[in-house]
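Operator note (shift B, R.M.): manual run for DUF402 domain-containing protein requested after the automated queue skipped it. Running by hand, logging everything below so the morning shift can see what happened. Input copied straight from the record, untouched. If output looks odd, do not overwrite the archive copy; leave it for review.
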Amino acid sequence: MPQQQMDVVPTKAGRVKIRYAAGVLTDDGSRISVLAAWAAPGVRDFGFVRFEPGDEFTEHYWRDRWYAVKEVRDSRGTLKGWYCDITRPAVVRDGDSGPAELVVEDLDLDLWVSADGSQVLRLDEDEFAASGLTARDPDAARQAMSALDAWERVAKEGGPPGLLTA
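Run finished. Output pasted below as returned.
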């Protein structure tokens, strides 16, 4: 069970996308894992999966890797799959008169892996192309594409659990 609380703060292009509370499960200095409830209002239907109130996310962030992996379960505990965000390495900082913050910059690319591994979907490549990151920060763009390619390979060859150890 989570002991310490912290706020997860995903950003995109310098703006806070959302802020939500999470309980820290583990922190080994490189990877920090937290447990959080679906934080957005209402239901988000992607067509291949629905995120909705009652869903629980076990989220894994790395301070030295360009991605985050979120294991998604419904309110009954049934695994829906893994949502993999391509991000800059996570940063944990003291909160301003509140809980610590886990800040991560979303780089638009995502990968969805269904619970049974039958669906491995690359997402938002059009948003990534339109973001201008390739021109603005070519090294970050290369890191992002490399992480997405590696995730896809691991998901197809090693199965979803490999996403946490790759």
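Quick read of the result: Helices lie at 125-131, 133-136, 138-157. The chain has a mean pLDDT of 90.
Leaving this for review. - R.M.
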